[in-house]
Amino acid sequence: MDSDDGFAVHDIVSLLSSPDRDYLISNNGNQVKITSLRGKKLGLYFSASWCGPCRRFTPELAEVYNGLSLKGDFEIIFVSADEDDEMFEEYFSEMPWLAIPFSDSDTRDHLDELFRVRGIPHLVIIGENGKVLTDSGVEIIREYGVDSFPFTPERIKELKELEKVAKKEQSLKSILVSHSRDFVISASGMNVPVSGLEGELVGLYFSLSSYKSCVDFTSKLVDVYTKLKAMGERFEIVMIALDDDEESFNEGFRSMPWFALPFKDKSCRKLARYFELSTVPTLVIIGPDGKTLHSNVAEAIEEYGIQAYPFTPAKFAELEEIEKAKQEAQTLKSILVSGSQDNVIGKHGAKVPVSDLVGKNILLYFSAHWSPPCRAFLPKLTEAYHKIKAKDSAFEVIFISSDRDQTSFDDFFSGMPWLAVPFGDERASSLGKIFKVQGLPMAVAIGPTGRTVTTQARDLVSVHGADAYPFTDERVKEIEAQYEEMAKGWPDKLRHALHEEHELGLTQRRIYTCDGCEEEGHVWAFSCEECDFDLHPNCALEDDKATEDDGMDEEKPDGWICDGEVCFKA
What we know:
Blueprint: H1 12-16, E1 23-25, E2 31-33, E3 41-47, H2 52-68, E4 74-80, H3 85-92, E5 98-99, H4 105-114, E6 122-126, E7 132-134, H5 137-144, H6 153-168, H7 172-176, E8 183-185, E9 191-193, E10 201-207, H8 212-230, E11 235-241, H9 246-253, E12 259-260, H10 266-274, E13 282-286, E14 292-294, H11 298-304, H12 313-329, H13 332-336, E15 343-345, E16 351-353, E17 361-367, H14 372-391, E18 395-401, H15 406-413, E19 419-420, H16 426-434, E20 439-440, E21 442-446, E22 452-454, H17 457-464, H18 473-486, E23 493-496, E24 499-513, E25 520-528, E26 533-535, H19 537-540, E27 546-548, E28 561-562, E29 567-568
Parallel strand pairs: 3-4, 4-5, 10-11, 11-12, 17-18, 18-19
Antiparallel strand pairs: 1-2, 3-6, 6-7, 8-9, 10-13, 13-14, 15-16, 17-21, 20-29, 21-22, 23-24, 23-27, 24-25, 25-26, 28-29
């Protein structure tokens, strides 16, 4: 039965029992009658021992469960997705709640299907009357913890409103002080009252000691912090460690000159959500008034160091002007020459002076052998390279590697017909920072003057190949005009024998695979977004298969990690 708001209402006994079972089990082997759960709020916890996110979430859920145990009106039932009884028993032994017996696979499968479980961990919360309160229990527990009880829509709305008020009335104490703690800790183990930091500029440093990017940034931040303190600046840092391993936390923290929240303090994850953390390292700046001055100055510190202080809008406006001036003054030598390093290499390690490349159109190709998207893009770039070189010898590509070792670099570079920055050369890291490389592959076009033409050359080559050369805005506009001209006279909609269910609409698509000829298509497609179906115009407009829209309208419904196209930095 469905309630007025669309959520189902269940009879708990029939939901959790089977013809030969009227009980649930605890991890000590005791049986608990299902009828004893009537009148309680229930959480159906879909999880498995082999699931990393589940193993990380279970302790959070257990903390909430234990915190609510005195109320006596909330119970959790584990619905296992484990592959065998041994795995189930090992995982269930860590849980303080009840479970559907592993042997009752029919009930577990039925609950999976009934609640449309498409991923785990998944937590469905059911009210005392059997009505589903939410199927987003995992997100609610992570966001609000024990405060989310009794898990009703009204309570969640209330918490969101309180959150808005808290942000509006934010202070350093509201951020860093909890019910059980009003201090931060020093590396020597001293408790330092948060009140002692009020009125200062405070950086909240979200870090993970196992991330190399955090390790590298920490050394830069220590340098900036030490210099500012020596200058007498009222600036402090509080580290918000996201580590799971206490030994790693202690080892990293003991060498740091600033403060931190205690290891695994409840506020760490809460603050990560509060500041909508999306990456580490992140350094949030809190002004002397307790308000957020900047959401993340890590990149600015990487690039400008102490020059970025005091992280105000006026300072960032000043840095933006400096950056514009730097870009205007950019030359090929200014980005590719560093001290005595004034060469790139060709085949067999032959040195090519950067001065020989001045005045040419250059493509800086950031790539790595370990990245599938990079290996997939290489043939396209190679084909474009040969076609461009045949028309213009004043063009060159320079490979900037993110490979892990010399062997991988050599293997990948051996299949390239162009130049490269040597493996391990510090200029590779410098170029990555200059052009803010976040994903691979990436291609940056440098014009004859040495200035940046575009950082999106990879997309241009993928879609237009050699025709995109020399990658300027003017050339892109010319190509777009050609494509607009190409589409003149084509119908906006048509029907096709290969997809009779719906009409196909003329759509601009960057890259797609034609469902007719199964070849790659670019720019234009006749598509059905509802079914993710695409036809290349050549296939769609064949006279014996396509007819123009007959005027019928169909009702439409409302509508470094590799994802196949790009490898992003984690």
